[in-house]
């Protein structure tokens, strides 16, 4: 009977066998829900049974005829596409960019034309080296790719969270990426630069050293994308409606401020929550705590650029903010999570060549290579030249041209006009679109930077030879705590390098950057500091730039930070609620943690935790508070997770808000009281300051 599937079919075996019951209709039996939409094949045919394949008898082989099964398995077999060759792991969000300071005198780009002008954006943050399934918190550069869906076409500002890059010329990019990815023979390490081939390569490429210093700084272990800066890196051009042009560098400044983890935290977070950044971004947006960034520009004249001791076309160099201030021109707010990770985040295709009138490229040889690479790789990743038609990539303004056909063409262009010029209008037919000399994109007639000649040479400009000045500037602009982190990061990474001569060579490079840095790293490796490496150009001393440091900006606010509150049996409900309110009234997020999540008796009823202690180590929080009853101490002190919670929070230099019973516990465990161990009353004001003076007491720093 077609309409009433029995849940079980009675199958009769050979004569003499007992009867067996064979499930034929799955766990839902013949449930029918008229309100539910119908499950269909890809051809729209309603499916009657999604639990059982079609067989020759209940115990017989599956029939080739079962097109429902074949279609389903076929599609599943092809669900994966190649992951990005770099920046494979990422997460993204939709949002809006709003112009807060119009700059029509600098650019004709419509999105900067008037205060209040809004442009939709899609932003993808990524790690670089690891595969799509790797963790969120390796030591790695982060991608910061923004697609602006402007009224004049899509503009992609495909940047990183570091303002400089490892190499000067695109021709070295495949070598760099091969060196940093898992080693070719071994297939490991995943998402890590701490191995022979990376350090072999960079120790032979002195142009990398400036970026390597940034990479060994806390910038590459960010607290989450919400607390990262972004940079367009290259020098671009702004062109106004009159055709006058200035040079520009783009900066994103997080409204919540810059914040990083410590290395030990990053390692622990990788185990406790491999999706830490992805989750952080998703949850912040989901709960209405929309992350935001200000877009700033450093604008300068070509004549100014020509007087500098560095070349603005060299992507291994930055322009200190103290030399050219960053002017804020707009704010980007991420306010909507993607509905579908694959369709949007995975299929998004960013490309530095996606540009709009009013913005143009420069001959930076790294940028020039990128202008080719992205479109090329996306054809191979997304399988067809028509990937621009995917909803996430399609411009929101009209898109019309004579490009036709190709695999997976989704549009149905009408008429015969698929070439230009044509005179089909004379036959009463549509002619199709026409070029627009007045409003269309025109490449800026390039200014003649002195190092920008018409000759075609395989050469680099003379100033590109200075690899050390800005690396030294970076190191000397850090606070002592950051310098110690940097040196310790080098020690960690180089300790993983098995090739003695590579370590030795790296020490010559570091000694050339700064003798103090070289000595610390050599000390950490128990090696002698060799003489500094030869330099292709002399070092130019530059005044320190505090803007390059994360910690010189003072105590971060509690807004947007996550605070863990530990409670146990008998804890004071009133005190917990008061703490939660104090944190949340300042814009922080309080998360209740206990040994069990289902509900624990507190002094005034039952309280449910939002996180179980074992799965919520203190590394996941910006600061921790603990509200416990003295009677719970016996039980808590025997739990290693409790000890680790406090010991890690202490070692990660976090503020600990402690009730008197917690103080007893800390004292027993030898966690000495200091300025960062606060009473419950002081805690909300002090969190999430870090107490870096502890660091030297808990770990060996280089
Ligand atoms: Fe990329 N880069 N890159 N890159 N890059 C890619 O494009 C490339 C560089 C950056 O979230 C690829 O679609 C070359 C600098 C981001 O989807 C590929 C060179 C900067 C993303 C590619 C560079 C970046 C990519 C891989 C040297 C910072 C992720 C997958 C000339 C300004 C975008 C893809 C996303 C992705 C090539 C250097 C940023 C292979 C050849 C410098 C944020 O096309």
Automatic annotation (TrEMBL):
The active site is at residues 87, 160. It catalyses: 2 H2O2 = O2 + 2 H2O. GO terms for cellular component: cytosol. Coiled coil: none annotated. The keyword NAD does not apply. Residues 1-34 are annotated as: Disordered. Keywords: Heme, Hydrogen peroxide, Iron, Metal-binding, Oxidoreductase, Peroxidase. Its cofactor is heme. It comes from the Bacteria. GO terms for biological process: hydrogen peroxide catabolic process; response to oxidative stress. It holds the Pfam family Catalase. GO terms for molecular function: catalase activity; heme binding; metal ion binding. Decomposes hydrogen peroxide into water and oxygen; serves to protect cells from the toxic effects of hydrogen peroxide. Belongs to the catalase family. HPII subfamily. This is Catalase.
